[in-house]
């Protein structure tokens, strides 16, 4: 009777959607490939799929999907690529630039938010221990991360 509800984090959905946009090879491909790096993705499987899509385009492959499928040798990447391919075309309409921007923002924002959480946690620990020098350095780091986040949101 008690069902477990699994809700995927927004950044995972955003990563998948960006990869789906990229695999369609239209004007969105160049927007994504210039705005997002492989290292911006959280999941290793998404980093690999991103690299494979770029590789296929650079090699002039006619069928991007077949190329990526053939080169997804590990189970996790193959599983993720299937999930990416299941995203409907309506969900990644090529004329929806606002949606694309939101996905890019989400992918870029998540690591910074995680870094901010880690800094705040370390700051609390340093304050408890009375480590003033370390606390000041962490406050400086925190301010830099917050500035980066503000910069992303301003676009």
Task: Provide structural commentary.
There is one protein chain. It contains seven helices and no strands. The chain has 155 residues and is mainly α. Helix 1 packs across helix 5 (75-85), helix 1 runs antiparallel to helix 6 and helix 3 (44-58) crosses helix 5 (75-85). The protein has helices at residues 10-23, 27-35, 44-58, 64-71, 75-85, 97-129, 132-154. The chain is elongated.
Which labels suit this protein?
155 residues; 73% helix
Q: What is the overall number of helices?
A: 7
Low-confidence stretches: none
Cα gyration radius (Å): 19 Å
Decide which structural class fits the backbone. Answer: mainly alpha
**Series of secondary-structure elements, N-terminal to C-terminal:** HHHHHHH
Give the total of beta strands: 0
Main beta sheet: strand number and arrangement?
none
What is the terminal separation in angstroms?
Answer: 46 Å
Which percent range describes the beta-strand content? under 5%
Outline: elongated
Please bin the fraction of helical residues.
over 70%
Mean pLDDT: 88
Give the structure's gist in a few sentences.
The chain has 155 residues and is mostly helical. 73% of the residues lie in helices and 0% in strands.
What topology does this entry show?
Layout: H1 10-23, H2 27-35, H3 44-58, H4 64-71, H5 75-85, H6 97-129, H7 132-154
